[in-house]
Every structure is written in structure tokens, then in C-alpha cells.
Amino acid sequence: MPKPLYVRLSTQADALDRFEAAWHLASGRTPPPAPLALLSFADLPLLMKNLSPARWELIRQLKAVGPTSIFALAKHLERDYKNVHTDVSRLLELKLLDKAQDGRVGVPWQAVRAELRL
User: Fold this and answer.
1) pLDDT at residue 118 above 60?
2) 5-115 adopts what CATH topology?
3) How far apart are CA 32 and CA 22, in angstroms?
4) Mean of the pLDDT values across residues 37-53?
5) Over the stretch 54-108, which tens digit does the pLDDT of each residue have?
6) What are phi and psi of 114, to 5 degrees?
7) Which of 33, 62, 111, 115 could be joined to 4 by an S-S link, Cβ 3.0–4.6 Å?
8) What's the pLDDT at 102?
9) What is the rounded distance in angstroms from the CA atom of residue 71 to the CA atom of residue 73?
């Protein structure tokens, strides 16, 4: 079963702390635990810019229909191809989607879990 993707707000200092902890754990004698699939954003506006309601709906619909071409996805969503292509490209960069060798895109996650600390 694919792992969930964790999305959270995290400062650069938090990321460095996680790296340092992983480095120390890796240099010890105990094997490190399996890494979490983690996507961090500096603040909520940046998260919302990258994971807009339209992009979230794209992910949700793509998960429901399964891997498909961008053209077929745009048609399914009843959205302009260029806009869907732009959204898919960004979601691929963020690793929220994956792309098969045949060009079809899909959602590799069973769930996306968000943590928004105050």
C-alpha cells in the first residue's frame, strides 16, 4: 500500500533540524526508520498558491479516474488544456503526481495529510 504524503508548514530552521536529526540517526548503529513522504511550505499563502482548490480538485479527480493523459484529464475536468497542463506540471514538480513513461499522469498517494501548526 502506498504511503500517505504529509504536507506541513515548516520554517527553514525546522528543515535543518530534521536533516541534523536524520544525520545523527544515520551515523548511529540503529537503522533509521523509513522516511516519511513530506512536502513542506514556508507559510500558508505559499501552500495555498501551490495547492489551490482547482489543483486539489484535479488531484482528487485524477485519483478517482486513475492514470490518464493530460488531454483526457482536461476533458474530464471540463477545463482548458493549457491550464490543466500548467497545474499538472507544477504538481509533478512538487511530487504530488507522478508521470509514467507512456506520458500518463497519476496520483501515487492514498492520502494527503496536512499539519498546520500555529
Assistant:
1) yes
2) Arc Repressor Mutant, subunit A (1.10.10)
3) 8
4) 87
5) 999 999 999 999 999 999 999 999 999 999 999 999 999 999 999 999 999 999 9
6) -110, 140
7) 111
8) 96
9) 5
**Half-sphere exposure of residue 82, counting CA atoms within 13 Å on the CB side?**
0
Enclosing H/E stretch for 45:
helix 44-50
Rounded percentage of the chain residues whose pLDDT exceeds 90: 51
Which cell is 99 given?
508521470
Give whole-number Cα distances, 106 to 7, 34, 49, 50, in Å. 18, 23, 21, 18
Check: CB of residue 24 under 8 Å from CB of residue 32. Answer: no
Q: For cell 474530464, what's the residue? A: 76
| Residue type at 103 in one-letter notation | G
The amino acid occupying position 63 is: K
